[in-house]
């Protein structure tokens, strides 16, 4: 999942975004995703979302699957973003629910039931079911209703513990792919629990790719050694989504060789101590 880098004047830093996308491609990632929680999608207007989709599509150039997470202010904006994602041949579209002050779990189900119809049947559809982070989500019975109704709804992006994910996966058909987030936290347990993969932000991707490969080779002990070295960084950055886009993004930026990182409000204001720690974690991981 791409971060969104900003300039001092609060505009999107297109040069840093290009470098980030190119790096994701160079590392051999299995896919590239944009406009998720780590991309600070809630702070972006439609034109900025459009620009990011265009950049990712242009630079990845069909060399790896493109996943577009879609979130908007209203149904019309969602529809326009779907059209844009399809125009750029997105492999998947992942929907976040419309979040308003009094949004309920029932509202989420009604919304997903309505918006999935907009997507071409040949494009895989997923939903972000992240009750732990955004406060609302679907029960497994509602997910199964969507699965049975829409032949292209075949993916879930979760943000839960491996124990909870494993319990949920048992309830779903095998071709309903479940991915987990949380910055790679519990990556090994998630994969052993039956997740198809994770959708992390960039700062630890080189390590995650090695872990994934080792798990495929059933070299669990070797995978755990890499994970143990990476875990302090994950714990530091994944205290919350605000923490991730403040400090996780800085770790990523420092590993990329960036020196100045600017934040778009609202969000967590970095402290000198926090920046010092982010630099130390980046130094431990080394340049990409």
Short description:
With 288 residues, the chain is of the alpha/beta class. It is 49% helix and 10% strand.
Write the layout of secondary structure elements.
Blueprint: H1 14-26, E1 32-34, H2 46-60, E2 66-70, H3 75-87, E3 92-95, H4 105-115, E4 124-129, H5 131-134, H6 140-149, E5 153-158, H7 162-169, E6 177-180, H8 187-193, E7 197-198, H9 205-216, H10 220-237, H11 241-256, H12 272-285
Parallel strand pairs: 1-2, 2-3, 3-4, 4-5, 5-6, 6-7
Helix pairs in contact: 1-2, 2-3, 7-8, 8-9, 9-10, 10-11, 10-12, 11-12
How does this structure look, described?
The chain is of the alpha/beta class and 288 residues long. It has a domain at 14-202: Aldolase class I (TIM Barrel), CATH 3.20.20.70. The chain has helices at residues 14-26, 46-60, 75-87, 105-115, 131-134, 140-149, 162-169, 187-193, 205-216, 220-237, 241-256, 272-285; strands at 32-34, 66-70, 92-95, 124-129, 153-158, 177-180, 197-198. A 7-stranded parallel sheet has the order 1-2-3-4-5-6-7. Helix 2 packs parallel to helix 3, helix 9 (205-216) runs antiparallel to helix 10 (220-237) and helix 10 (220-237) crosses helix 11. The two termini are 16 Å apart.
CATH architecture call of the domain at 14-202: Alpha-Beta Barrel
Shape: globular
Find the CATH topology of the domain at 14-202: TIM Barrel
According to DSSP, the number of beta strands is 7
Instruction: Determine Rg (CA atoms, Å).
Output: 18 Å
Estimated helix fraction? 40-55%
- The string of secondary-structure elements, in order, is HEHEHEHEHHEHEHEHHHH
Q: How would you state the average pLDDT, rounded?
A: 94
Find the structural class using helix and strand composition: alpha/beta
User: Helix count, per DSSP?
Assistant: 12
CATH homology superfamily of the domain at 14-202: Aldolase class I
């Amino acid at each position: 999942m791409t971060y969104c880098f900003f300039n001092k004047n609060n505009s999107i830093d297109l040069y840093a975004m290009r470098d980030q996308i190119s790096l994701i491609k160079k590392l051999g990632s299995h896919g590239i995703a944009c406009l998720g929680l780590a991309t600070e999608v809630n702070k972006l207007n439609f034109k900025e979302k459009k620009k990011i989709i265009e950049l990712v599509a242009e630079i990845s150039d069909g060399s790896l699957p493109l996943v577009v997470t879609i979130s908007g202010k209203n149904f019309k904006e969602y529809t326009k973003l779907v059209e844009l994602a399809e125009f750029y041949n997105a492999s998947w579209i992942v929907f976040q629910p419309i979040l308003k002050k009094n949004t309920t779990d029932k509202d989420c189900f009604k919304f997903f039931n309505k918006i999935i119809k907009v997507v071409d049947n040949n494009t895989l559809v997923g939903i972000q079911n992240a009750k732990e982070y955004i406060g609302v989500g679907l029960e497994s019975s509602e997910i199964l209703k969507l699965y049975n109704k829409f032949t292209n709804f075949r993916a879930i992006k979760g943000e839960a513990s491996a124990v909870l994910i494993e319990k949920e996966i048992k309830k779903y058909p095998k071709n309903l792919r479940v991915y987990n987030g949380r910055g790679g936290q519990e990556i090994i347990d998630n994969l052993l629990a039956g997740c198809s993969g994770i959708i992390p932000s960039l700062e630890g991707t080189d390590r995650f790719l090695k872990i994934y490969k080792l798990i495929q080779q059933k070299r669990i002990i070797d995978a755990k050694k890499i994970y143990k070295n990476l875990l302090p960084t994950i714990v530091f950055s994944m205290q919350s989504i605000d923490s991730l886009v403040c400090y996780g993004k800085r770790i990523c930026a420092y590993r990329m060789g960036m020196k100045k990182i600017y934040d778009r409000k609202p969000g967590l204001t970095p402290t000198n101590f926090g920046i010092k720690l982010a630099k130390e974690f980046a130094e431990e991981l080394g340049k990409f």
